[in-house]
Design a protein that fits this description.
By secondary structure, this protein is mainly beta. The protein is built from one helix and 17 strands. The strands form three sheets. Strands 1, 11, 12, 13, 14, 15, 16 and 17 form an eight-stranded mixed sheet that branches. The mean pLDDT is about 90.
């Protein structure tokens, strides 16, 4: 598994020129948790923002992300018809949302997310109950085995077997 925070802030380098064309500002997913791409520039009043579609990413390394050329960067306007979830930024971002069960139990807040080894799909969350609980008990890793309802402030998941949440050291 790959951690989302590990790529946030990595430089994006073109293989044809060695030029750095930006840094990773966010990871975008669709409603089926498939990775759509990475954000290079966020939307502002005067420009729609740019992203690199997942299929145009050559590699995600420990020190940088590589693409074939500057032409891999695309306007965010091309995602206008897609329900997009930003992992770390934007109005509906996942980070910071509370994960609640259908029975009303809070499992913690999303601090990070995990992707499959090829970055194709989001596969789980890392949850925190606050920094004291992080220090004393560690964070919890919860697989994305169930389709959550993504609300403005919370992710609602069905009941699940407690043993599926595992502790991780942050």
């Amino acid at each position: 598994m790959q951690r989302g925070l590990d790529v946030l802030g990595l430089p994006v380098v073109c293989l044809d020129s060695g030029e750095q064309i930006g840094i990773v500002r966010d990871i975008l997913c669709d409603k089926t948790w498939r990775t759509l791409g990475i954000v290079l520039e966020e939307k502002s009043w005067f420009q729609p923002g740019t992203f690199i579609p997942f299929e145009l990413i050559h590699a995600v390394g420990d020190d940088c992300l590589t693409v074939s050329s500057r032409g891999a960067a695309t306007s965010m306007e091309s995602l206008a018809d897609v329900d997009v979830l930003g992992v770390f930024t934007g109005k509906g971002c996942l980070r910071g949302k509370t994960v609640l069960t259908e029975r009303g139990e809070s499992l913690g807040n999303v601090e990070d997310v995990y992707f499959s080894s090829n970055w194709e799909k989001l596969v789980g969350y890392e949850l925190s109950d606050g920094w004291i609980a992080d220090l004393t008990e560690g964070r919890k890793r919860l697989p994305l085995a169930y389709s959550p309802v993504v609300g403005k402030e919370a992710l609602i998941i069905p009941e699940f077997p407690r043993h599926q949440a595992e502790s991780v050291q942050s």
